[in-house]
Amino acid sequence: MQKSMTRLVLFFSLCFSAVAAYATPGINMPYGVTPVSHEIYHLHMACFYVCCAIGVGTFGVLIYSLIKFRKSKGAEAAHFHEHLGVEILWTVIPTLILVVLAIPATIILKDIHNTEDAAITIKVTGYQWKWKYEYLDQGISFFSNLSTPQDQINNKAPKGEWYLLEVDNPVVVPVNEKVRLLVTSDDVMHAWWVPELGVKQDAIPGFINENWFIATQPGTYRGQCGELCGVNHAFMPIIIKVVSQDEFKTWVSAHQNVADQSQHTQMLALSQANAAILKKQNHHAKKVELRS
User: Fold this and answer.
1) How many angstroms separate the Cα of 89 from the Cα of each of 51, 83, 173?
2) pTM for the full predicted model
3) Architecture of the domain defined by 123-243
4) What is the pLDDT of residues 76-135, one digit of tens each?
5) Using CA atoms, how far apart are residues 187 and 166, in angstroms rounded to an integer?
6) What is the DSSP string of 32-44?
7) Sequence ranges of the domains in the chain
């Protein structure tokens, strides 16, 4: 009897621990800062409570049976093989639960893939092991690489607060604006994953997958590659900076100026290279003419 009571206390302790995970950061799914992340979170918690109810009901009946019909009280096992009513019941009830959960899940999936009316479109390309971002409407393009010092990675220096979650060029987007993502890969499969934005989208070579988010709170949100992509898979962090409209316009202007200067420098270098080639060809032609 004492052993049974101990098991009962342990069971309910585990149940209360599971419920406590609801509000414990780092254990539960983040609530996030986008409408989609909120919908995903509520669906997740609904499934969690259904699982808790099933667990309490199942193990409650099991523990009650172990205590009530134990051998020390002279209980004898019944001899039966099947019961049509019970079999129908344990088939219909799980089916109904799955149908009830599938309805909101389908609605959320439909919402996730609705990329219409986006204010900004960003093409995201995964490489081994970095990300490339292209703002298609603003003409801005840059690579985003891990910026954690090698001394920290090699255990030669203390690890910083954002170890392996810091980059040289973060993505900047305006608050309360719909951002459309076109996600692909240049080599192997990757996955662009930022939990607080409610986005986890596979990057597949030769395919472009779409997703979107609207960040409702300014701040810095971090993620990582969510698909095993090689030896440096852990070194592909993602940083999204959500700023005000004015800050975003300032950032766009600054990067467009840099892009224009870079393009001018490239055109100048190309022009000089073409001039040098043409000069060399003319010189060679004069040599051939003198010899003839």
Assistant:
1) 18, 10, 52
2) 0.74
3) Sandwich (2.60)
4) 877 777 788 888 998 999 999 999 999 999 999 999 989 999 999 999 999 999 999 999
5) 23
6) -SSHHHHHHHHHH
7) 2-71+83-112, 123-243, 255-292
